[in-house]
Amino acid sequence: MTHERLPGLWSDEIMHPGSVESVDLVFRRDGSGWLYWASWSTEFAVSRFTWSSQGELVLKFHRTLEGTWSIDNGVTRHDVESEKKEESVIEVGYEIAPREDPYGTPVTLLSLARPLTEHLAGSRFAWVEKPESLSDPSADAPRPDPSSPH
């Protein structure tokens, strides 16, 4: 059984406005998801996982993609520069509760018992009420030609 309030988009950007990095967590109802880390330096990483929540949140990471992002005519583009298989499992306690963002605005907060430092992520993520998309930003991104010299 999975926690009914987890599916959707959670972001730490709401809790840390103006930060040079941000992390989004997406939990899909089918048990898949991803963690998206992006920096103002135009670097990004997407770590894909499957998840369950029976007491603790269990994230089974299986693929990581890294590259750069850019904005072209108002559209964010992602170019994948590396893609690798990953086999790691993170089990972490969590709580979903009403809280406030730094400006005092009510938010629903996902608090993890510890930061996800392995994936450059913290431990507090606010629910995004109306996300633009729940699609993995790297899903259709260009990939390097595996036959070209590096």
How would you explain this protein's 3D organization?
This protein is mainly beta and 150 residues long. 0% of the residues lie in helices and 56% in strands. The chain is built from no helices and 9 strands. A hairpin with a 5-residue loop joins strand 7 and strand 8. The N and C termini lie far apart (45 Å). The model has no long low-confidence stretch (mean pLDDT 90).
Keywords:
9-stranded antiparallel beta sheet; mainly beta; 9 strands; 150 residues
Give me the number of helical elements. Answer: 0
Residue stretches low in confidence (pLDDT < 50, at least 5 long) are none
Radius of gyration: 16 Å
Give the overall average pLDDT: 90
**Order of strands, widest sheet:** 6-5-4-3-2-1-9-8-7
- Secondary-structure element order, N to C: EEEEEEEEE
Spatial gap, N to C terminus:
45 Å
Task: Tell me the layout of helices and strands.
Layout: E1 8-11, E2 21-27, E3 32-39, E4 43-54, E5 56-72, E6 75-92, E7 94-100, E8 106-112, E9 124-127
Short recap of the structure:
By secondary structure, the chain is mainly beta.
